[in-house]
């Protein structure tokens, strides 16, 4: 038996990466995930930038999770200056963050991942064959995008998230209208869970170290302690001891490692490490779809994403109520730059994201370092591939086409954001 | 596409991305309330980010991102050859975008700083039109899907599309946004091409000029006016160079 897989510029992921698999006489010779995206040098471009510009520039690292990059940049800046943002600003930021999580996860679930499970090349033919699925996808994604627009000023490259807080507050009637829409979205989320239950999730496990923020009383999104499923625990400022980036031959993305050769971040890592903090309804959906900690099947990230959407939709309602109750409270605090370092850690849709800036006394960045979710996942995807191919070959998968699809699905299960990873 | 029962030709559309965040092509899949109609008006034959089907036979190529490596030049030349119309989508494709900020640094040093002793191939960032001929430029960081829809409608009906010649200021007035200058903050709204519906001044950020200069921008008068308001040359230059659309007017 001989298998040769060469996927150049894998489709239905963000950015450019290649899969190579070689099997001959039933023996695995090579299995690689290589990132070939053009490197972008944001860490260099951030140098010399004024603190008011950091979030605006950093947002442009990613077209899908720009709110997360902006939030992380602003958080790093605020921590460097010893600032605490007003409570109302923190609520509005988290509401925008929930919007982003839902829009990003829904984009992935329906447009990037679902076609594999439905035997399609894209979600576009659903308009003819299953219009109700496409309409549901558009309703959920559309609601999340409009929520981001209303709270952050714009979904892609937000405008309102600024050092010191947020620069605009949506009107009460707008917030309350979203409250109603979020309640209505529960039905669509339930139907999405039913759809996901019909997907044939590949049976594959590889013992993996997971890394995420750990929440204390809330499921974590913005700031907190860093933990791994192998028992490592660090403070936010100690992110370098967690991420350990290395430059790898033939890859424009770096890789990360902690206790093992690689580790994974993202929705599955968050669920694995904070399961008890999910909204009860989210935990119910997880139970129904067979997700419980500690889950080592990377394909279950599809379930984890939906579970997080359920959590975020419920939590967004709580936030709307709190924001409306605190109407009129300040959302901005004075910013006074001081020299020093600041680290921000945020759970972006694809996993934990770090920005670290060193500021001079003039409020300009002297040094910047960004460690991005997909950068951390790329090494783990690469390490998954050989085990996955071996297990699939052992299970009798012996044709190029089938194995190519399965390997592509494995990479997609991480929802890689490759442009981000070569920031 | 059918409107009032009348069938029109669906152009074959391909979407490609070079150096950038892919946020502009993502906008094509946003604005969900009209997405079905949009996708019905065109035939998407190549859009790697959302489809694993691909075809080299297309009428319109939408190119997202700037050029920063030799293989991108090669890809772009092939796309130019195949497409009847090549559209630069977004500020990176139109002007180089924020990626152009890289060009003021020594690239060898930049490489050492990010990749240590394993430097990666990288070129100074260029706009798409600096490499191949471009038929149409839709600026914005990101592009406005509204505007993309309008442009596509005009392409389908073979009617020239005219970008607004007026500046962003006008759109702030239309939506009753308090003038950013009234808040003592800098804004490029008076000289930047409209068409975005001014979300940044409305969100409290002021305009950063991502769409490049308005056709009739009175640059001299603008500079006089902002200097009178005590904004320094450095701040003005930093703002105008941010997205590359003002072509290093001040450097």
Supply database-style keywords.
heterodimer, A: 423 residues, alpha+beta, Cytochrome-c3 Hydrogenase, chain B, four-stranded mixed β-sheet, 12 strands, globular, B: 251 residues, Rossmann fold, 2 domains, two-stranded antiparallel ribbon, 10 helices, 11% strand
Description:
The complex is a heterodimer of chains A (423) and B (251). Chain A has 423 residues and is α+β, with helices and mostly antiparallel strands. Chain A has helices at 42-45, 51-59, 66-80, 87-118, 126-129, 131-152, 172-197, 239-243, 267-274, 280-288, 301-325, 373-394, 400-413, 418-421, and strands at 2-7, 17-24, 27-35, 161-162, 165-166, 209-214, 225-228, 233-234, 263-264, 340-348, 351-359, 365-371. Chain A has one domain (42-411): Cytochrome-c3 Hydrogenase, chain B, CATH 1.10.645. Chain A contains 14 helices and 12 strands. In chain A, the strands form 4 sheets. Chain A has a 4-stranded mixed beta sheet. Chain A is globular and about 70 Å long. Chain B is an alpha/beta fold. Chain B has 2 domains: 2-157, NADH:ubiquinone oxidoreductase-like, 20kDa subunit (Rossmann fold, 3-Layer(aba) Sandwich); 168-241, no CATH class. Chain B is 33% helix and 11% strand. Chain B is built from 10 helices and 7 strands. Chain B has helices at residues 23-28, 35-41, 70-82, 91-95, 107-115, 145-157, 168-174, 199-202, 219-228, 233-241; strands at residues 2-3, 6-7, 12-17, 43-47, 60-64, 85-89, 136-138. Chain B has a 5-stranded parallel beta sheet. In chain B, strands 1-2 form a two-stranded antiparallel sheet. In chain B, strand 5 (60-64), helix 3 and strand 6 form a beta-alpha-beta unit. The mean pLDDT of chain B is 93. The chains are: A alpha+beta (423), B alpha/beta (251). At the A-B interface, helix 1, helix 2, helix 4 and helix 6 of A face helix 1, helix 2, helix 5 and helix 8 of B.
